[in-house]
Amino acid sequence: MQLDTLGLVHEFLRRTVRPGAVCIDATAGKGRDTALLCRLAGPEGRVLAFDIQPQAVEQTRALLEGEGLQAEVYLDSHANLARYAPPESVDCVVFNFGRLPGGDPRIFTRAESSLQAIDAGLALLRPGGVMAMALYYGGENGDTERDAVLAHLSKLDQRRFSVLVGSWTNRRGQPPIPVFLWKEG
Ligand SMILES: C[S@@+](CC[C@H](N)C(=O)[O-])C[C@H]1O[C@@H](n2cnc3c(N)ncnc32)[C@H](O)[C@@H]1O
């Protein structure tokens, strides 16, 4: 099967998230990223997941229950991440921006809260921690969030963070942009 952005993000997570890790899924959606984080962090780990859409919280909880996995799933904006964990205590933060397939079409991630959430996530990451993103754009999402997120990431202090932004140079359409970030140790 051909690799796509979500597949690439999952491969990155498999290679970086270790048993016992503390992980945040900042956009729970259907819960697939949350479930992967739970499997990778294992029973000694802690996984927190956030979504502002009740339908997403329900779907994530149902998926976890069906797979025998456990996470703390919160109906709250990722802009409030800092309320849920101490600074520099988190190993991995995942963002899968955009909208919930089959969900309320009026609800999607937006530049202002996404930037707040990224900054909150950066403060929560421990040195050596990682962040992974799938950044959607075009169509109903427009380009505002993509432009704001990429501009924000490009201004991060290179002594504190390393950010890699991918581009699918020969893919048609508007495939989400994969972003990988490391907090320096
Ligand atoms: C592309 S989906 C996420 C897919 C998900 N990671 C999965 O594995 O199925 C994006 C999600 O972000 C959620 N969202 C939008 N704004 C949000 C916010 N401010 N805080 C948290 N979640 C938000 C949407 O409700 C939607 O479910």
Summarize the model shown:
By secondary structure, the protein is an alpha/beta fold. It is built from five helices and seven strands; from the N terminus they run αβαβαββαβαββ. The mean pLDDT is 96.
Task: Describe this protein's structure.
The protein has 185 residues and is α/β, with parallel strands linked by helices. The protein has one domain (5-183): 3-Layer(aba) Sandwich (Rossmann fold), CATH 3.40.50. 33% of the residues lie in helices and 24% in strands. The protein is built from five helices and seven strands; from the N terminus they run αβαβαββαβαββ. The protein has helices spanning 5-16, 32-41, 54-67, 111-124, 144-154, and strands at 22-25, 46-51, 72-75, 90-96, 125-135, 161-165, 177-183. It has a seven-stranded mixed β-sheet, with helices on both faces. Helix 2 links the parallel strand 1 and strand 2 (46-51). It is globular and about 40 Å long. Bound molecules: S-adenosylmethionine (SAM). The site of S-adenosylmethionine has 24 residues, from helix 2 and strand 2.
How would you sum up the major sheet? 7 strands, mixed
What would you say the CATH architecture is? Answer: 3-Layer(aba) Sandwich
- SSE ordering: HEHEHEEHEHEE
- Strand order within the widest sheet? 3-2-1-4-5-7-6
Count of DSSP strands: 7
- The level-1 CATH class: Alpha Beta
Bound small-molecule species = S-adenosylmethionine
Spans where pLDDT lies below 50 across 5 or more residues = none
User: Roughly what fraction of the amino acids lie in strands?
Assistant: 15-25%
Radius of gyration: 15 Å
Fraction of residues in H or I helices: 25-40%
Number of folding domains? 1
Tell me the CATH superfamily. Vaccinia Virus protein VP39
Q: State the separation between the terminal residues, measured CA to CA.
A: 35 Å
* Structural class designation: alpha/beta
